[in-house]
Amino acid sequence: MILALFLYLLKSGVFYLFNGFFDINLWLVGTFIVVGFLLWLGLYYFYRKYRYQSKFWGKVYKLSLLANVIFSQGIYERISKKNGKKDIEKFKYFPRMYMKFNSLNSFSVYLPLDGNKFQKRFIDGSFDSELVIATRATVSDTNTIDGFIVYEHLLFPLNFRVSLDNAKVSSHKIEIMQGMVWDFEKHPHMLLSGDTGAGKSFFLFSVISSLLKAGVDLKIADPKRTDLASLSRTKPLKGRVFYTNDRILSEFEKFNQEMLDRADEYQQILKDKDGMGNYREYGLKAHFFVFDEFVAFINMLDYRGQDNVQKILASITMLGRQLGFFVITAMQRPDADAIGSAARDQFQMRVALGKMKASGLNMMFPDENPDNCASLDKNLKGWGYALMSPGKPRDFFAPEIPKGFKAKAYFNELGEMLEKRELAKSK
């Protein structure tokens, strides 16, 4: 409609021009200008709104942002030459950078490691941090290839969220977001923090569901008797959820002792083997202890009790990987003193959900500048940052839990499904 009107006015305007300038209808000219302006405004609006969804304009827009960052950060060298009385500056050197577009929602930036004076900024991530802010992307991976450091980026990480039932699971890997798979043998032990309303419990539900599907032996502690405690009455977790202080402490000690017993079992196995293999190679199952509200539990104990729990945690985190014993420690606010110095650096998978203060981010991601972890909408549940050591924190969205989710009903159905699967295997 607008295009037809525009063409009509254009035809009329040309007609009037060829039939005498002074015969032009000023109202027609004004209408022509207004319609042209509205058409330009509409095209600009659609460009701004859909520039990320357009392959061509999306590439142009990202390249323009990269160019802006290069110039604003001074990533170039200039020389001055005199031309008579004037000094003329010319560009002498630009680092050889590349941007590769993998899809509409992901791209890679190649920064040269050729001894240039900007190399330190490329390696420590300070240059890429500016690009992340400009493009509103998140760094998903970093590696070096043929003289370049490569930063992989994702746009709109919310689009990479997986649903609770569609998360892929294997014997030692669980998918927690598209493009992010937690291999708990490679990155053992998870440290999880998230304040009230951040989605911590729902994330734990999804992780527990995936672990059950993976066939691990699972125990759960919930000293506050909140969300996870309700799973004690479900089919797959009956007798495996503990919420009294004495029982939690007893089961945690038992879990550690089972790990030490497996170490003795290994010694017997290795008498006839050359070298120490993975626990799965000998037909052994992975064991998990999910410890919710860990800080709250520690604060309920006296000094001797705290020391005992911290020693057990250190034992599991330092010895458990090879033996197939893993722990997930969850808390509302990260507390380094509660975890203990021996276990603090052993958590290779870290997830911080929701808005968090700089002190909390420093504890969760000690090698990262908290300013690089921007906060999103506080009403958006399940978002945060995740790190698989030794990588960098990246934007993270926990698996999506369907509306009207009923934990007990879901896990009872899951238990029945797992029973049928075991029966099918045994036949």
UniProtKB/TrEMBL annotation:
InterPro entries linked: FtsK/SpoIIIE/SftA, FtsK_dom, P-loop_NTPase
GO molecular function: ATP binding; DNA binding
Keywords from the UniProt entry: ATP-binding, Membrane, Nucleotide-binding, Transmembrane, Transmembrane helix
Source organism superkingdom: Bacteria
Annotated TM spans: 24-47
Keyword set includes Zinc: no
Ligand binding (ATP): 194-201
Domain FtsK residues, every copy: 177-362
Database matches in Pfam families: FtsK_SpoIIIE (PF01580)
Protein name per UniProt: DNA segregation ATPase FtsK/SpoIIIE
Aminoacyl-tRNA synthetase recorded as keyword: no
